[in-house]
Design a protein that fits this description.
The protein has helices at 13-21, 40-46, 57-60, 67-80, 107-115, 127-130, 158-174, 177-185; strands spanning 2-6, 26-31, 50-52, 54-55, 62-63, 84-87, 118-125, 144-147, 151-152. By secondary structure, the chain is α/β, with parallel strands linked by helices. β2, α2 and β3 (50-52) form a beta-alpha-beta unit. The radius of gyration is 16 Å and the shape is globular. The model has no long low-confidence stretch (mean pLDDT 87).
Length: 186
């Protein structure tokens, strides 16, 4: 049982990261509006990916009542069947992708503990230049992905598991060549 936990910078993230996770099968947690896109939405629905239903509240990031419980139940079923989960615990793309990683929500860390899952910290950088937030299409860019040592949920609290995972991702991301170049330029 694995939960791959990633920071989130761009719409390119799942496209880039899914190739890195092959041949393993993961259910990706994504916003429900993606399921409404012709062809692409049908594909993610048919692949068994999981949706979170957002509302217009909180600038479009409020959550539809009852949708989180439904999502967590479906997530549990995936883990019970041996299918891993790929999640972005920041909740949304980072509005400042060149800035620090945002705080992680506790939901999937709590689930990992309940299900005895292993968390795989995964750091992403560079994808914000590959598919900038305001652009409709991909562009060429270098992206970097690092997979950290798996973290057992055994004996952890949701907060301690979150904090260990967050620290691992921040450290790995800081070692990516684009992040090092950015610090050198500052």
């Amino acid at each position: 049982k694995k939960v791959v936990v990633m920071n989130h910078l761009s719409n390119a993230d799942p496209w880039i990261c899914s190739g890195s996770l092959l041949p393993s099968d993961y259910a990706w947690v994504c916003k429900g509006s993606l399921f409404k896109i012709p062809f692409g939405g049908w594909a993610i629905d048919n692949s068994g990916d999981l949706k979170i239903e957002f509302t217009k509240e909180k600038g479009g990031w409020g959550v539809k009542k009852g949708s989180v419980a439904k999502l967590m139940e479906k997530s549990k079923r995936c883990l019970l069947r041996g299918r891993g989960l790929a999640v972005y615990p920041e909740g949304t793309r980072n509005p400042d992708p060149d800035g620090p990683t945002r705080e992680f929500k506790l939901g999937y860390f709590t689930l990992a503990i309940e299900m005895g899952a292993t968390v795989v910290p995964t750091a992403i950088s560079g994808t914000q230049r590959m598919w900038p937030k305001s652009e409709p299409l991909f562009d060429s860019s270098r992206a970097f992905i690092s997979f950290g040592d798996p973290i057992s949920a055994e004996g952890e609290t949701p907060e301690s598991l979150r904090d260990k995972t967050y620290a691992a991702i921040v450290e790995m991301r800081s070692q990516h060549p684009d992040e090092k170049a950015k610090r050198k330029a500052d």
